[in-house]
Amino acid sequence: MGGGLRGAAAKKELGAFYTPDSTASSLAGWAIRTGTESVLEPSVGGGALLKAALIQAREIKPFGGLRQPLACDIDPIALETLRNELGKTVEFCLGDFLELDPRKFRKFDVVFANPPFTRNHSIDVYRRKELRERFGIEGPAGIWTYFLAHAMDFLVQGGRIASIVPGSALFTRYGDAFLRRMCRSFLAVNVYQLAERPIWSGGTEERGGILLAEGYFDGVCSKYVKGVWPPSSKQNYESSRELQAYRDLSSAAASWRSRVDQYRRRHRMQFCVPVIGGGACSV
Ligand SMILES: C[S@@+](CC[C@H](N)C(=O)[O-])C[C@H]1O[C@@H](n2cnc3c(N)ncnc32)[C@H](O)[C@@H]1O
After folding, report:
1. How far is the CA of 14 from the centre of ligand 1 (A)?
2. N or C: which end of the chain has fewer CB within 10 A?
3. Helix, strand or coil for residue 214?
4. How many CB atoms sit inside 10 A of residue 50's CB?
């Protein structure tokens, strides 16, 4: 963990309560699957999530690594501390994530986030109005909704988001509206209550939850699924019907492709492309 914030007031203002390592590592287990993903951390703080992602990637690919992750934060001290620790393996970006223009950045496979714990009423009135209009979000939404709505614009097709969210995401109207909105862009959206209240570095009482969304622009899902994190080994990660159907279809397509390849190899089949005035064949 670590990080460079000064006092409790500064922490509260920045919504800076860092993720405990155990939660970070269980989330990294879901987010990092190949070890070579490109990762965006929009509010990196002390780097708990980013470090967990780097560790998970190294476990999967000891000689590979994440494709230079991008880590942003508005807190210059936290960012400088982390830069000294992680060096050039990570690209750092100092500033307000909500003001980053996604067109000026590459796209990412994974957004791995714990946005600031800033509630609706603590967002400056003018900023709140501007954010609501920009992202088309209604109700007393905390800043996490704007962070995640903006983060989606940085994802590749098929990308995923693993994020800590406030516990209120699970039981408020605005949380429900936001999760249903995510269902229109992802194949699966799951939201979890944390089985135990984490001990956030910085000392907030926030209960916290986990939001996992995958298959960005691969399709939509009819509803989001609720559960408890970490899922028990029996329960595992419950997929939406749409995600399961998509996985079945992808694995059917992959097995079909491999059978065609085998058939081609076995019969040294030639595929002919008819060309006007002659014929061209390729093996
Ligand atoms: C809840 S902490 C999470 C830090 C880290 N992601 C983690 O999981 O431990 C939120 C972080 O958001 C940063 N932050 C607050 N407002 C921000 C903004 N507008 N743009 C980028 N970062 C911001 C804070 O400085 C703080 O480091």
Report:
1. 7
2. C
3. strand
4. 25
- Run of H or E including 163: strand 155-165
Distance 278 CA to ligand 1 centre (A): 64
Judge contact between 44 and 78, C-beta under 8 A.
yes
Residues 102-120 have pLDDT tens digits of 999 999 999 999 999 888 9
Query: Where does residue 222 rank: exposed (0-12), middle (13-18), buried (19+ CB within 10 A)?
Result: exposed
pLDDT tops 60 at residue 183: yes
Q: Map out the domains of the chain as residue ranges.
A: 8-239, 245-282
Q: What is the pLDDT of residue 230?
A: 83
Count of residues for the chain?
A: 283
Beta-strand ranges (E) seen in 74-107 are 91-94
Domain 8-239 in this protein, CATH class: alpha beta
Distance CA 65, CA 89 (A): 9
Q: Which amino acid is at 56?
A: Q
Structural contact between residues 70 and 95, judged by C-beta atoms closer than 8 angstroms: no
